């Protein structure tokens, strides 16, 4: 009974470390994330101001994730984010009072480099919170949910920006990357990735 187990362990040890081919987009072998081409470019992303308090939280979190050493002096990319926030009640007591709420944060993301769109899409995150008896406690729970949502959406945006920069670096002449028109605004849909 012991021999089959020993044989299995020996076979697994003989395989050694077998890789699946996965490679992190923000790092290369023998380097830190900041030294990789995508890591260097992430540090050159300028994040435009985002309106309201939660927008400031998202912007601060993005700056920390994209360029931890501070905002770039010579930005190569421009990131625009527009946020929409909503709160819905999802749990109720027998007397009709809400006991659970969901805070939904939707970000419209636009990334461009020298007039070329690299990314135009939306990201969504939901953070749940409890309604407690005293009103102040419920306000604190909702504020904490807002802070969690801001952090979650900043992580999501950073991943999308890194993927878009890597796509662009792999093939900057791809026809899906098109130039920005003069009358463009954040509400327009210049997405190079949507089908006509």
UniProtKB/TrEMBL annotation:
<dbReference type="GO" id="GO:0043165">
    <property type="term" value="P:Gram-negative-bacterium-type cell outer membrane assembly"/>
</dbReference>
<dbReference type="InterPro" id="IPR007485">
    <property type="entry name" value="LPS_assembly_LptE"/>
</dbReference>
<feature type="region of interest" description="Disordered">
    <location>
        <begin position="168"/>
        <end position="196"/>
    </location>
</feature>
<dbReference type="Pfam" id="PF04390">
    <property type="entry name" value="LptE"/>
</dbReference>
<keyword id="KW-0449">Lipoprotein</keyword>
<protein>
    <submittedName>
        <fullName>LPS-assembly lipoprotein</fullName>
    </submittedName>
</protein>
<dbReference type="GO" id="GO:0019867">
    <property type="term" value="C:outer membrane"/>
</dbReference>
